[in-house]
Specification:
By secondary structure, this protein is mostly helical. It has two helices and no strands. The longest helix has 34 residues.
Amino acid sequence: MEPPESGRRAAVVTVPMIVAGVCLAIPFVAMLWVDSYSRLTPTFIGIPFFYWYQMAWVPISTGLTVIAYIIVRRHERTRRTEAGGHA
């Protein structure tokens, strides 16, 4: 398969890229769906749910971003290796 005339590779949607995209989309959906956490109970060490829920998403989002990064790096490395380039 030859690359397009512009010299750029065609975009390919693969399962690893979809999984990475979902990992990045989950925190956005969780934070934009305000009705799911717009309440005071249950409290955690005296902190209303509204606040601790948002703060809990900081490490969760970090973890999901790291997972997406690892998936994309492995996918790119695999594609490069299959294309005959250097890993």
